[in-house]
Every structure is written in C-alpha cells, then in structure tokens.
C-alpha cells in the first residue's frame, strides 16, 4: 500500500490533520506532521522518540527557522500551507528535504 505524508505548516495544522484522517479511510499508511518552531534535540538513543531533525526556513518569515522531525521515505507527500507569500527558497528547501516520489504543494486561500 502507498505510504503518504501530509505536512501542515506551523499553525496551519488542522487541515493537515483532517486530510490525514480522510486519507486513512482509503490509504492505510498515512503520517501527518507539521513544521514547528520548537527546536527539540534529537538523540542517537534508539529508545528516544526523536532521532532526526530537519532545519527549514519558515514559509511565513524567512528570518525564522522551523523544524520537521523523523522524516523518512514516502511514496507521496502533500504539503498544506496558508502562507501568503512563501519565498521560493523556503518552498524549495522544504520540498528538497522530503523524500517522496510525488510531492503536492497546496496553498490555501481564504
């Protein structure tokens, strides 16, 4: 079965969680993550929950760093954001760090 990652950006997490829940009905291997401003330290200890951390430029403010944890390979990744004007560098950095065969970038507009 397909392995899908849904990523919400910073506070825009609700839509990612809802989409992940909907996808679970047809795709069983669904992971949902959100970029965060919280810099949790990873550990090499196999009993520790966080073993890898990715530093990213925020899609909302290029002066801010955000993080994703425990990334691995996925068949498909769907990134959801409500950022008005993400920099090309931030988008490229995020999509480059996600190891997926297909990546969809969805920009929510009110």
**Stretches where pLDDT falls below 50 for ≥5 residues?**
none
The averaged pLDDT comes out at 95
Biggest sheet character: 4 strands, parallel
Whole-angstrom Rg: 14 Å
Structural class: alpha/beta
| Helix percentage range | 10-25%
Give a written overview of the molecule.
This protein is of the alpha/beta class and 110 residues long. Helix content is 18%, strand content 36%. The protein has two helices and six strands, in the order βαββββαβ. The chain has helices at residues 14-23, 88-97, and strands spanning 3-8, 29-34, 53-57, 65-69, 73-81, 99-107. The chain has a four-stranded parallel sheet. It has a two-stranded antiparallel ribbon with strand order 3-4. A hairpin with a 7-residue loop joins strand 3 and strand 4 (65-69). The longest helix has 10 residues, at 14-23. The radius of gyration is 14 Å and the shape is globular. The mean pLDDT is 95.
Task: Give the gist of this structure.
With 110 residues, this protein is α/β, with parallel strands linked by helices. The chain has 2 helices and 6 strands. It has helices spanning 14-23, 88-97; strands at residues 3-8, 29-34, 53-57, 65-69, 73-81, 99-107.
């Amino acid at each position: 079965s397909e392995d899908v990652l849904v990523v919400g950006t910073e506070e825009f997490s609700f839509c990612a969680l809802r989409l992940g829940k909907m996808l679970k009905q047809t795709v069983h291997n669904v992971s949902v993550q959100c970029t965060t401003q919280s810099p949790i330290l990873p550990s090499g200890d196999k009993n520790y929950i966080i073993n890898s951390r990715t530093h990213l430029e925020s899609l909302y403010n290029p002066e801010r760093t955000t993080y994703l944890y425990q990334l691995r390979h996925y068949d498909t990744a769907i990134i959801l954001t409500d950022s008005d004007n993400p920099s090309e560098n931030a988008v490229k950095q995020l999509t480059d760090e996600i190891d997926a065969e297909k990546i969809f970038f969805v920009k929510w507009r009110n």
